[in-house]
Design goal:
Layout: E1 3-12, E2 21-29, E3 33-37, H1 44-51, E4 59-64, E5 67-68, H2 74-78, E6 81-84, H3 96-101, H4 116-128, H5 144-157, E7 162-166, H6 174-188, E8 194-198, H7 202-208, E9 211-215, E10 222-223, E11 232-235, H8 237-240, H9 243-250, E12 252-259, E13 262-270, H10 272-277
Parallel strand pairs: 3-8, 3-9, 6-7, 7-8, 10-11
Antiparallel strand pairs: 1-2, 1-4, 4-5, 9-11, 12-13
Helix pairs in contact: 4-5
Length: 278
């Protein structure tokens, strides 16, 4: 499979002389499900902004579908990548149905208004996210969890080959967390979508993702071969998610074991050296 996302030696920092991301290098194949994890402030949301061209690296190269990300205009990028942001600016004066229909703008072409196909896509996406019963409700009157499902429906309605999600299960209860991951997994194969999801839930990432990227905050070069001095790790979940590495990267003591055939990690307490720095 050809890579649809490529990062080669990408470095980025918000202040001169300080790299949040350093030498970041990895490839995401078409149709893959990739999880991004790491401590707060390690650059996860920054990475998504780099992938969509909202930020530009100090060095390195980023390609989307074989083309430099900086070569895409807004409309062209909107047909390649859809995003569910962590703190989106949402149009509160519109209904749920109208909000989801807005995602079809990139598909209108010369048309001014949506057509029957756009309406069908809107309804399908609301049904897939268990939000069809909210269609006529104003967006401003939804709970946090309801709004999150609508924003996922909007991203799906954009109908792009790449879907980027920044902590999409925030505000969702346990049932809807699983439903979101099940939904993403269900559309991944049949629709050949490439899904990249930021998550703090290592157990869900280990269960659903084929590859995971762990960011450590730019502390050193990257690794896919077990070098625990690295600033990032990329590979299969069972290779990247080890008890010792999770304790090192997140600064916690954990217990781990297998439940229903899956490796599970449970944080117990902060590591003593982390407590002493607080």
């Amino acid at each position: 499979m050809k890579p649809v996302i490529e990062m080669e030696q990408v470095s980025f920092g918000y202040t001169p002389g300080s790299d949040l991301l350093r030498g970041l290098t990895f490839k995401v194949e078409q149709g893959a499900f990739v999880g991004i994890a790491g401590p707060n402030g390690s650059g996860k949301t920054t990475l998504l902004r780099l992938l969509t061209g909202l930020l530009h690296p100090q060095s390195g190269l980023i390609r989307i579908d074989g083309e430099n990300v900086d070569s895409y205009g807004i409309s062209a990028m909107a047909q390649k990548v859809s995003v569910v942001c962590q703190d989106p600016v949402v149009p509160l004066g519109f209904s749920v149905a109208e909000t989801v229909l807005m995602a079809r703008v990139a598909r209108l072409g010369q048309r001014v208004f949506g057509d029957k196909r756009d309406m069908e896509v809107m309804q399908q996406c609301l049904q897939m996210t268990d939000a069809a019963h909210l269609a006529d409700r104003p967006l401003g009157r939804l709970s946090g969890g309801e709004r999150q499902r609508v924003l996922i429906a909007r991203a799906l309605a954009q109908d792009t080959p790449i879907l980027l999600l920044d902590e999409p299960t925030t505000f969702l209860d346990l049932r809807h967390q699983l439903e979101v991951y099940d939904l993403l997994k269900a559309i991944q194969g049949p629709q050949d979508k490439t899904i990249v999801i930021i998550t703090h839930d290592l157990n869900l990432a280990g269960r659903y993702c084929e590859r995971v990227l762990v960011l450590c905050g730019g502390s050193g070069p990257g690794s896919s071969d077990g070098d625990d001095r690295a600033g990032f790790f990329f590979g299969r979940p069972e290779e990247v998610f080890t008890a010792s590495r999770i304790e090192q990267v997140f600064g916690v003591q954990i217990v781990s074991g297998r439940i229903a055939g899956q490796q599970v990690f449970v944080p117990i307490k902060r590591r003593p050296e982390v407590i002493n720095r607080v």
